[in-house]
Fold this sequence. Notes:
The chain is an alpha+beta fold. Among the domains are: 1-73, no CATH class; 157-246, Chitinase A, domain 3 (Roll). It contains 12 helices and 7 strands. It has a 4-stranded antiparallel β-sheet, with helices on both faces. Strands 2-1-7 form a 3-stranded antiparallel β-sheet. Helix 2 (35-45) crosses helix 3 (52-72) and helix 8 (175-185) packs across helix 9.
Amino acid sequence: MRNVLLLAFAAAALASAADQVDGVAATVGTEQILRSDVIAEMRRAGADENRYGEVLNALVERKLAAKAAKDSGMTIQEWVVDNRVREIVDEGFGGDRNRLIEALSRQKIPFTDWRQKIKDDMVVSAIRWHAVDKNVSASPSELRAEYKAHPERYRTSGKASVSVILLKPEDAERRAEVMDAVAAEGFAAAARRFSVDGKASEGGLWKEIRPEDEFSPEVCAAISKLAPGEMSDWLDVNEWSFLVRNEAPASAPPRTFAEAYEDIEANIKAEKAAALYRKWMDGLRAETYVKIY
Length: 293
């Protein structure tokens, strides 16, 4: 239900934005990205209007990656694209291609345009793998160091305990007042006074839950970066204000190094890949004319 509501809010906001006069949002080399392109991508991703700049930047980087693939001569054979289309039909539409066509028709998207988008996605993924992912590895010493430095990441329980203060959009101006109350009275007392969260009467405490089952991706991402006892900055989600504190983990013991090996390796590779991707993109930007309007 939470995700349905978020998507509904996003769709309504973006529909309003789509009524605005179209124009050029960015130029990348000899190609342009229109505002309507950004809004269409936001709809596809279920992103709210506050993420316009983030989505635009992602489209710019996509253009840069596509140009790098073209310059390198990289292509995707048509039969590979057809296989991917069949996978999507099987997984998302019960194997019924007509259901896909009907869904695209309701969104006024020609099948040929949609298929080209699938092909473009595959090209971008392929050039990213060639430039970034295949060059990332984790050494034994890095694995050990990560396990030692972040034991909280490798506990046996996938659950967390967090405290939340939630303000309605019209109460956003009370953020400073809430922060003063947190400092003076403690997080739980401030939650009872100000929060409209379902756990406000319990001091905002969500005990031993899977964050992804309860909160939006933005809030989950913030929680994952908090050390035990650490509090986030204010988070804006569809104009609602979230303040989150990561409570000390439950008594779940850490997994052994062997048990956590795959997760440790994945975390190291993800961090390295993010840094290498940023370096790659910075290089492409330096070689290509990019202008954001």
